[in-house]
Structure formats: structure tokens, C-alpha cells
Design brief:
alpha+beta; 22% helix; 33% strand
Length: 89
């Protein structure tokens, strides 16, 4: 969860509007931050135990992918807040 908090702090510091779209499904909680990147694309970054790619090492998952991977299903995991900010802002 530290990386998600850092992402939100970095977005705030740069004056980028974002919204908390987190959801709780009983014992399962998904922390989600939505915003638009520098290309105007809607972005969704999540962290959820047993759900997101890389959660067990406190890393984030993003849709669309931060890096241009043509062979993905539109999702990229194992991301840090710094990587997301570096590529999109």
C-alpha cells in the first residue's frame, strides 16, 4: 500500500486530478486510483492483496500498461509509483 500512497502524493504534488475508486468485496479490498495521463488516456492503478499483479511485494498494477508492451492483455504489474509518474507525466 506504500506505493499507492506515494502515487497519490506525487499526483497531488503535480496538481494532477485523481479519484479514489476503491472497492470492498467482503474480505477482499481493492485500492484503485483513477486519473488521466499526459496523453489524455484514462488510467486505473490498483493494489489488492491476492488480486493485483505484484501485490505481495507492494507493487502496483496498471491499465493501460505503463510501458508499451504489445503482447499484454492491457495490464502491467510490478510497477512503482515512480515508474508510473516517469512514463506518464
Amino acid at each position: 500500500m506504500d506505493e499507492m500512497n506515494k502515487l497519490r502524493r506525487l499526483l497531488d504534488e503535480r496538481g494532477i486530478k485523481w479519484r479514489d475508486d476503491s472497492a470492498n468485496f467482503g474480505e477482499l479490498t481493492i485500492i484503485r486510483t483513477k486519473f488521466r495521463n499526459k496523453h489524455g488516456q484514462p488510467c486505473s492503478v490498483i493494489y489488492g492483496e491476492h488480486v493485483s499483479i505484484g501485490w505481495f511485494v507492494d507493487m502496483l498494477e496498471s491499465m493501460p500498461p505503463v510501458h508499451d508492451y504489445s503482447d499484454t492483455d492491457g495490464v502491467e504489474g510490478y510497477l512503482t509509483a515512480d515508474e508510473i509518474m516517469q512514463e506518464w507525466f
